[in-house]
């Protein structure tokens, strides 16, 4: 014990020194800020230089703000043949006054061995030491010694690294926000995180395997390793809904990367209001079908029309005319010359006024004529008929507001499909609150229409050097097409779980997803096979559901063998039984949090019951996750994790959800410690026995 105590004291002294160096680095950065503030004014070059310094200092201060998270989480000692160095691995790189490294950033090449070294392949290591910390206080040490190959004959590369630190992290109470795993990254996770940048990397991962945090850590790693060009090109993280984005929003800032954009598909469509709701299954599936590409394209084409009658307008003592045949030629030529609709408007106007000028005296100037006559009602009406300038909202408002236009855009639509797309036209398209299912149609329309004249910055599509997509298994072909459009060079990380595909476009395999993503390089595939979050007794029940929901998939293996199986509670009185279950589960998880999960149709009744019972709870909003108790529809709970979950009426979830058994599988795999199942209806047979 004395040796361990002395080691702990020595390492604590080193940790204290590292924090002192970090605090001094922060002070030096703040001094630089004050120097820049003193130098206000000056030349343009001076201002540009000042802004560059500001940007660099702000980034460094961001990196040095670790909050309550531990700065250092381990140490590696190299064999003499590998250099004999000793490196402390941590959240951010820190140097002393002599610019010697005190802490090595976890993303640096030398840190790779901390995560990847195995007994058979020690990567030059003599020792790997894991720290168990709380803030700046070191609580314990865990050593792995390399060099004796006989001790590692069973090591296949999947043995847990830093078991003690990992278990402490897994058993810590959830906070309502996803935390980073930078101190406990396992080898199979690190392989994905450090995978090369180019091309599409697809990651299959079951519940609790850490696919979300792995994807986010990969974004941080790529920004560190490829700061140029990614800092300029941008990195985008796409989540399924805004609740999910609120849940993950602290991970990247905790890793020192706050410049990454987080968005839903709807957030990427500018100039319109889009919420998280999806249309009913049939409509959502129709809007996600690639048939919509033709629908939108032909809808735009139907707005490119020759005039039905000749235009005749007075100018001085003469009449100027443009015949229908001339307008037919103008429309045909505009279609031939221009890739996007709005880009051709100026050409159409120029040709129209040239035709007007040609019909009068030979000395008429088309441009002067345009300036004098463009405000004439007959001219405006003619140009708006031939080639109107359109926004995506205007196009779809007109299209969905007319069954005749829908049929003209796609004669193959059935009457039921036309009726499902139809919505009454509104006078002001900007007032429409579009559904999440409409996002890709609006984006497709923007791609076909192109920027409006004078609004290129507002209407252009932003592209990114790398895109991370979570829960990709529910995205439709049109959704995937929208993501492809935003990829600058085909570099993407996409993660999901086919078993948790519950949307209208649930995919049965990865091929149908990858077929719609950039194919400049062959896609690479990885799988996360170990569930760190879910105890084995809970996973065993979920696995029975998985066997029916997706029989071809292999469930992940649970790291944690201890734990309680789900508790089944019959409902006699919803208010009393639900409140009692909430209090029982909260008491069992101490400071942990809890989610009440149910079918969407039951949420109002559950909220009313909890309110009547005096139970404080949050709803699925950005701030709602901060409550110890949250009521979450099963359709929004995917990707979240809590200490305890109460699943209400599983039979109703199975009955009402598009992919009922998969939705139940999602609900049963959110908790890290306890699950209670409340039911008045008979349980699904898969949960019985």
Structure summarized in a few sentences:
This protein is of the alpha/beta class and about 700 residues long. The protein has 27 helices and 23 strands.
Shape designation: globular
Rounded to the nearest angstrom, the distance between the terminal CA atoms is: 48 Å
Low-confidence residue ranges: 149-157
Output the strand order for the largest sheet: 3-4-2-1-5-6
Strand content: 15-25%
Radius of gyration: 30 Å
Question: What's the count of strands?
Answer: 23
Helix content: 40-55%
Oligomer: single chain
Q: Count helical runs.
A: 27
Task: Please outline the major beta sheet.
Answer: 6 strands, mixed
Mean pLDDT: 90
Describe this structure as you would to a colleague:
- With 689 residues, this protein is an alpha/beta fold.
- Among the domains are: 175 residues, no CATH class; 76 residues, no CATH class; 152 residues, P-loop containing nucleotide triphosphate hydrolases (Rossmann fold), CATH 3.40.50.
- It is 41% helix and 16% strand.
- It contains 27 helices and 23 strands.
- Strands 3-4-2-1-5-6 form a 6-stranded mixed β-sheet, with helices on both faces. It has a 6-stranded parallel β-sheet with strand order 9-8-14-15-7-16.
- A hairpin with a 2-residue loop joins β5 and β6.
- α1 runs antiparallel to α2, α6 packs across α7 and α24 packs across α25.
Key traits:
six-stranded parallel β-sheet, 27 helices, 16% strand, alpha/beta, Rossmann fold, 689 residues, six-stranded mixed β-sheet
């Amino acid at each position: 014990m004395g040796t361990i105590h002395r080691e702990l004291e020595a390492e604590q002294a080193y940790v204290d020194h590292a924090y002192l160096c970090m605090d001094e680095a922060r002070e030096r950065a703040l001094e630089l800020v004050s120097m820049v503030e003193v130098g206000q004014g000056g030349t343009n070059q001076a201002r540009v230089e000042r802004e560059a310094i500001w940007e660099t200092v702000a980034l460094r201060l961001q990196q040095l703000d670790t909050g309550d998270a531990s700065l250092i989480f381990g140490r590696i000692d190299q064999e003499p043949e590998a250099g004999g160095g000793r490196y402390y691995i941590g959240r951010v790189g820190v140097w002393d006054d002599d610019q010697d490294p005190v802490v090595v950033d976890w993303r640096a090449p030398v840190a790779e061995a901390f995560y990847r070294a195995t007994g058979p392949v020690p990567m030059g290591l003599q020792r790997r030491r894991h720290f168990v910390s709380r803030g700046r206080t070191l609580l314990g040490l865990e050593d792995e010694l390399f060099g004796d190959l006989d001790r590692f004959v069973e090591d296949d590369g999947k043995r847990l690294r830093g078991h003690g630190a990992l278990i402490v992290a897994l058993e810590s109470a959830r906070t309502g926000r996803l935390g980073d795993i930078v101190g406990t990254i396992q080898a199979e996770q690190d392989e994905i995180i450090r995978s090369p940048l180019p091309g599409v990397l697809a990651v299959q991962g079951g519940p609790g395997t850490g696919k979300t945090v792995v994807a986010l850590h990969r974004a941080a790693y790529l920004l560190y390793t490829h700061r140029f060009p990614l800092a300029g090109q941008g990195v985008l993280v796409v989540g399924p809904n805004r609740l999910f984005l609120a849940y993950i929003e602290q991970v990247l800032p905790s890793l020192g990367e706050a410049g990454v954009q987080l968005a839903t598909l709807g957030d990427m469509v500018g100039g319109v209001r889009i919420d998280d709701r999806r249309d009913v299954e049939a409509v959502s599936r129709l809007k996600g079908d690639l048939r919509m590409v033709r629908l939108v394209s032909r809808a735009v084409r139907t707005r490119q029309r020759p005039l039905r009658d000749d235009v005749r307008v007075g100018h001085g003592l003469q009449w100027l005319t443009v015949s229908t045949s001339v307008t037919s030629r103008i429309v045909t030529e505009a279609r031939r010359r221009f890739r996007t609709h709005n880009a051709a408007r100026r050409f159409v106007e120029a040709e129209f006024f040239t035709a007007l000028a040609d019909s009068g005296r030979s000395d008429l100037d088309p441009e002067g004529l345009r300036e004098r006559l463009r405000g004439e009602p007959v001219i405006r009406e003619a140009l708006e008929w031939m080639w109107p300038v359109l926004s995506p909202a205007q196009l779809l408002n007109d299209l969905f507001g007319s069954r005749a236009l829908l049929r003209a855009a796609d004669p193959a639509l059935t009457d039921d499909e036309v009726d499902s797309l139809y919505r009454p036209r509104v006078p002001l398209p900007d007032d429409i609150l579009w559904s999440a299912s409409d996002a890709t149609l609006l984006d497709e329309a923007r791609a076909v229409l192109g920027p409006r004249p004078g609004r290129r910055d507002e209407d252009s599509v932003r592209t990114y050097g790398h895109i991370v997509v979570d829960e990709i298994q529910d995205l439709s072909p049109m959704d995937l097409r929208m993501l492809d459009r935003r990829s600058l060079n085909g570099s993407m990380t996409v993660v999901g779980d086919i078993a948790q595909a519950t949307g209208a476009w649930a995919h049965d395999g990865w091929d149908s997803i990858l077929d719609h993503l950039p194919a400049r390089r062959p896609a690479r595939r990885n799988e996360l096979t170990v569930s760190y979050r879910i105890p084995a007794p809970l996973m065993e029940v979920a696995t029975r559901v998985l066997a029916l929901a997706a029989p071809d998939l292999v469930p992940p293996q649970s790291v944690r063998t201890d734990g309680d199986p789900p508790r089944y509670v019959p409902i006699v009185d919803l208010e009393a039984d639900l409140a009692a279950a909430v209090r029982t589960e909260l008491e069992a998880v101490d400071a942990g949090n809890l989610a009440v999960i149910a079918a969407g149709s039951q949420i109002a009744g559950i909220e009313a019951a909890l309110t009547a019972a005096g139970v404080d709870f949050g709803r699925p909003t950005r701030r709602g996750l901060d409550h110890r108790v949250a009521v979450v529809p099963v359709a929004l709970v995917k990707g979240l994790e809590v200490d305890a979950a109460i699943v209400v009426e599983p039979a109703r979830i199975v009955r009402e959800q598009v992919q009922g058994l998969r939705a139940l599988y999602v609900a049963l795999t959110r908790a890290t410690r306890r699950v209670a199942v409340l039911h008045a209806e008979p349980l699904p047979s898969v949960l019985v026995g």
